[in-house]
């Protein structure tokens, strides 16, 4: 069984920074893409950033230039450095990973971590 464990959310003032981490654990698996999504109250979950195993990165337009995604393949961990945070970044942030166990590929999600940006 593969699990994703997130950390790093919290409360920050506008203009501040936070760093989210998400580590995958389990046995006999490999990871393709990893990334972050977020869901604000009353809104649909939306893509924030993704990174493939080869390092190709994609960002939502709303976070370009402020957020940076990275991953440590040796640690099966993905990070999201969030700078210049705005109140509209307030949401529950979910880690995502496309994981292959033996020959089966599935999408895995973390439990979510709250990010609150005060004005």
Task: List descriptors.
119 residues; mainly beta
Describe the protein's architecture and organization.
By secondary structure, the protein is mostly beta strands. The mean pLDDT is 95. β7 and β8 form a beta hairpin. Helices cover 0% and strands 61% of the residues. Strands 2, 4, 5, 6, 9, 10 and 11 form a 7-stranded mixed sheet that branches. Strands 1-3-8-7 form a 4-stranded antiparallel sheet, with no helix packed on it.
Could you give a short description of this structure?
The chain has 119 residues and is an all-beta fold. It has strands at 3-7, 10-13, 18-25, 29-39, 46-51, 57-59, 67-72, 77-82, 91-101, 104-109, 113-118.
Mean pLDDT: 95
Largest beta-sheet characterization: 7 strands, mixed
State the separation between the terminal residues, measured CA to CA: 41 Å
Run of helices and strands:
EEEEEEEEEEE
Helix content: under 10%
Number of helices: 0
Per the principal axes of the C-alpha atoms, what is the gross shape? elongated
The portion of residues forming beta strands comes to over 45%
Class from helix and strand fractions: mainly beta
Low-confidence stretches: none
For the secondary structure, the number of strands is 11
Q: Whole-number radius of gyration?
A: 14 Å
């Amino acid at each position: 069984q593969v699990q994703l464990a997130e950390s790093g959310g919290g409360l920050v003032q506008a203009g501040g920074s936070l760093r989210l981490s998400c580590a995958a654990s389990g046995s006999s698996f490999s990871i393709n893409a990893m990334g972050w999504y977020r869901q604000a109250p009353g809104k649909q979950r939306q893509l924030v950033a993704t990174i493939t195993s080869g390092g190709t990165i994609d960002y939502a337009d709303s976070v370009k230039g402020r957020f940076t995604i990275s991953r440590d393949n040796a640690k099966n961990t993905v990070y999201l450095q969030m700078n210049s945070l705005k109140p509209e970044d307030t949401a529950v942030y979910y880690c995502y990973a496309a994981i292959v166990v033996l020959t089966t590929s599935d999408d895995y999600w973390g439990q979510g971590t709250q990010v609150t940006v005060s004005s």
